[in-house]
Amino acid sequence: MKQELFKTRYTKYGHGFDVRATYEQLPLQGFWTWVTGKSGNKNAPKAAKETLLKPWQLFLQISWGYAVFFAAVLLGNEILQSELHWIAKVILSIPLMCMVVNRQRGLLHTFHYTIHGAGIANKKLAKFVCKWVLSMPILHTPWNNYMKLHVGEHHSVNTFCTDKDVDLQFMTSHGFYKGMSETEYWTKLVVAPFHPMRIYEHIKFRLEVCFVNTDRHEKVSRAIYWVLLLTAVYLSGYFTPFALYYLLPILLITQFSSWIQHVTEHLWFAENSEGLPKYIFYGSLSWGRFFGRPYPIGHTGWSFAWRVVKWGLGTLFIDIPLRVFSFMQDLPSHDFHHRSPGVNFWSIAPERAANEGLVSRFGPMTETWSMTESFLILRDHLCRNESDPFGIVTWYQSNKQQLETKPAREAAAVEAAA
């Protein structure tokens, strides 16, 4: 049952209400769930195991990614061999590369969920698919390495967002720290991923984790895979478009795509100075990062028409490009993944919506409705020492006695056991 105490919380920079609710009267609700990243699901929550994919569903998810890769190389070859002006070739290549990045990172996130046990029930098949179909073709971290770095250290309630967390180490390497100036923050936000050393480190990490710092069977199988693949591509005569439309996105463009969302993925460098219970503190470090602006309900005539035009332009030129290039698949609801890592990515948005307002050991859910809003709360945290953007500390201190009642503890225990 929904509880007023656990209603969703917002920042001072946002609209202060659920923007997705203003879309409820529009047609094509599935499309708006994809655009915004937030579902309007009002059904009861499912158990995590109920959200797992059948093997054919997983392969369907993977297959369209491979279709994009093949199509990009073939179409890219046509572009390169055409007599078009080089500017036209660049313009035509941009959407191809964006879609390749989308599906390369899509495979990465499918791997990510599968390694959490949130892909398919058959663990042997899951491990085989992760190695040969999801990880190896995109030079992604092998299974055992990823289990340690991500599942063991990033997701642990004891090391999450600490200096032992590889994701926070990534932010440190890009020059971010608590107490930085605002000028430094905005400058590094824009230029840090383009620094030649960061690009070099990114490529070096990918190659080392795939071919050097991993298990012997991974080194051997990956070396054989890539030798055979590169040989086949070379003999086919498609090496140049393959390098440009497949390898370049993997080794370079993906880094920029990932950076846009990674920088606001969590409240980096946070400290539990107010003594929050560890799970509430853990929950406070992530939030739903949704896209959109209120649909202009309550307006008529020219006022309505003008507001709809502005709303539509924002959807077309801000929300959709960000969803395609950077926030693909589950990423707007990544906060819920940290609360319930066993929920499959096909179901993450509706299950997050189903769990909104329910009693949770992680505290109430929180959300922003633009990239700017997330950038501002991270700036406030790192530069102004304002580290409670959703008022979770105040919420806990005001409701501490109620949160410690037997029914609240029992509900949290049920959630933990799910």
TrEMBL record:
Keywords: Membrane, Transmembrane, Transmembrane helix. The chain crosses the membrane at residues 58-80, 86-102, 223-248. The keyword Transmembrane helix applies. This is Fatty acid desaturase domain-containing protein.
